[in-house]
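User: Quick sanity check before I run a bigger batch. Here is a single chain. Can you write out its predicted 3D structure?
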Amino acid sequence: MFNSFKRRAPSISIFHHPSSPPSLKALKLLQSANTSPYPANKSPSAPPLEYNLEVVESPPTTDQVRTILSYMPSKATSPSMALLSAHPSAGAGETRPQSIEAIVELARKTPAALKWPIVVDWEDGKAVIGDVEGVKSMLETLRKKRDGEEKTGDEVDQPKGWFT
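Assistant: Done. Predicted structure follows.
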């Protein structure tokens, strides 16, 4: 009955580094999809995607990293493998930080050690780290929801029990 009150635009954050080409490409993609017809190549009359975009030009905090890692599809990956780049400042082997706190501290001191961008859809619980194709996939999921091709949380078939 009150489902329309729950509907609001998703919140997407991009942890962005201006000197990272993938980060610049992802930011441009997110801004374009939010302000221009999406997808532009298929239907120029399509409306833009609706979401609140937050651009953060600093590494995520320790708590944010924990949440982001919980959104990753594979939980078996270590935090350093998921978050740290191949840049020499990230360390190698045993010198590579393993704890979330150490990774966040390294990212504050040396931003090049982190994989950029980090894009998070807080409502859907999805995160993409250092992957522009993953950002495109995230936008495609939003488009499918907008166009009714994918069921939202309220429409997903729930198992029927005795009392439902």
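The mean pLDDT is 85.

User: Great, the batch can go ahead then.
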